[in-house]
Fold this protein.
Amino acid sequence: MAANGYLIVSALLFAIGVVGVLARRNPLVMFMSIELMLNAVNLSFMTFAHFLNSVDGWMFVFLVLTVAAAEVVVGLAIIVSIFRARRDIDVDELSSLKG
């Protein structure tokens, strides 16, 4: 498979993630869509790193994976705390985080 194929798959995964974030109101689905978008970017980084014979793309992949793991921990903690307080986690009705 040529580099174009990997980049097309990466673009499709990213587009599916964008649709998931924009169309869904469930925060868990939104977080999964964000993770899908980050993994699509990782796929494009790996593609460019492989075909350019560079390790810079792999370093960015590890950086993005680290940030994604931290984002999941913080995001799920926020979702759990809101669910405990309200028993409802509709994104459109969340204004409890405003200061």
About this structure: The chain has one domain: 3-91.
